[in-house]
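Tokens as discussed.
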């Protein structure tokens, strides 16, 4: 039913989840947390450091876009091996035709079958996706922070950024529309 990779609607999907069992439907969830938490922590850490290193002549919009994109690249690259394990465990959870392994056994399998490069398979497309996504995320974050600031000096420094944020918000809306 759900193991063929096709879904005939919402009810069909729920029946597939019921047939697999709730626990198998969430296989890979612990690994998702193991990827997401460090990735976000690394991203914020790199973002702060990158913002500090941007030239003072850059406006906040440019700084946040560049620093955000860089932080996403670093965070995704560092956590990508665990993300590969996460994706494989999730697929194993819903496919009966695949061997089911623990994350440790899958890591050993990847190393033996593909070598270290196996942990970075698909990194290129991931980075192409992450760079604009995290750049826009941090740009919107800074825009909203500047717009809500009571500090007149902060608002004065960020007037150009708030105006640029309208463009960023339109871009976010366009990206969301494309995904639908």
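Sequence:
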């Amino acid at each position: 039913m759900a193991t063929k990779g096709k879904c005939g609607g919402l009810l069909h999907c729920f029946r597939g989840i019921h047939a697999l069992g709730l626990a198998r439907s969430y296989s890979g969830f612990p690994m998702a947390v193991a990827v997401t938490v460090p990735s976000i922590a690394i991203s914020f850490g790199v973002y702060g450091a990158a913002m500090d290193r941007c030239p003072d002549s850059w406006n906040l919009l440019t700084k946040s876009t560049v620093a955000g994109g860089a932080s996403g690249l670093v965070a995704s690259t560092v956590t990508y091996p665990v993300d590969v394990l996460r994706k494989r465990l999730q697929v194993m959870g819903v496919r009966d035709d695949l061997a089911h392994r623990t994350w440790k056994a899958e890591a050993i399998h990847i190393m033996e079958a593909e070598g270290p490069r196996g942990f970075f398979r698909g990194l290129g497309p991931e980075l192409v996706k992450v760079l604009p996504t995290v750049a826009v995320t941090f740009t919107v974050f800074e825009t909203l922070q500047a717009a809500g600031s009571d500090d007149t000096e902060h608002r004065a420094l960020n007037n150009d950024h708030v105006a640029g944020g309208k463009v960023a918000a339109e871009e976010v809306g366009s990206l969301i529309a494309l995904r639908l």
